Amino acid sequence: MLEKIKETAEYILSKTGAKPEFGIVLGSGLGGLVKEIEVEHALEYTSIPNFPVSTVKGHGGKLIFGKLGGKNVIALQGRFHYYEGYSMQEVTFPIRVMIALGVKRLILSNASGGMNPAYQIGDVVIINDHINLLPSNPLIGRNYDELGPRFPDMSVPYDPAMIKLAKSIADKAGVRSHIGVYAAVSGPCFETPAEYRYIRTIGADLVGMSTVPEVIVGRHANIPCFAISIVTDLGGFEEAQSVSHEEVLKVATAAESKMTSIIKELLHSL
Ligand code: HPA
User: Fold this and answer.
1) From the first residue on, what is the mean pLDDT of each consecutive set of 10 residues in the chain (270 residues)?
2) What is the DSSP letter of 32?
3) Among 81, 153, 200, 264, which is least packed by CB within 10 angstroms?
4) Which domains does the chain have, with CATH numbers?
5) Whose CA is nearest to atom 6 of ligand 1?
6) What's the gap in Å between 2 CA and the centre of ligand 1?
7) Is 209 helix (H, G, I), strand (E, B) or coil?
8) How many Å apart are CA 186 and CA 134, to the nearest integer?
9) Residue 74 backbone dihedrals phi, psi, to 5 degrees
């Protein structure tokens, strides 16, 4: 794995010469943030050695380098999900590469189902903790001490200073936002009514199919992580509501500008 990470990072460096400080991962329907980046380089995933290839609609499949909020960023336009059949190591490989390229902080976005009764469709939620309900963990297997410790501390999974800053940015901008706990499931089914209730009962406000493996790898490398979610559907309430990927993409895309302005301002303030 170390060789692959090195090979990929060296290839990217040779093509771009980029020295990104922030790594950004754009979730379902949220790839439009790229329009705000002053793009210096863009690499198709298919051209990058050892990179998995994205298979889901709404995921662009490009690695973007440039400036956002005055900072050097590298953005994954389209992430890899466990439900696509990738191993956890494949899902998180781009994060390892970002870190090898010198990224100092991670900013992740996703679309999620909201179970907190205070939440509405289209709300922004700043994630402050997570529950890993995925059937695996990207750190299972041999540990490479060069990448991080065998038993990483997860007491501060999401950076408190970035959470505070983002919340005040959202409040000032008049964007409806919350701070909440995200549970990661494998998907690809959306949850049954009982599953939503179960996930709510164990302490989550949101449920989705991503982000947690990436944060685990980020924290393994002691990188501060920040994650922001758009509530695209609601679950676990009296009346079961149907969910579709089309609806998730539609709501995420409609709410994208709120999330984009928060991330941009956050980068600007850091
Ligand atoms: N469940 C799981 N993943 C999701 C959901 C959901 O309700 N909405 C968007 N991603």
Assistant:
1) 94 92 88 88 92 64 91 92 93 97 96 95 96 97 96 97 97 96 97 95 97 98 97 85 85 86 93
2) G
3) 153
4) 2-269 (3.40.50.1580)
5) 113
6) 33
7) coil
8) 5
9) -125, 125
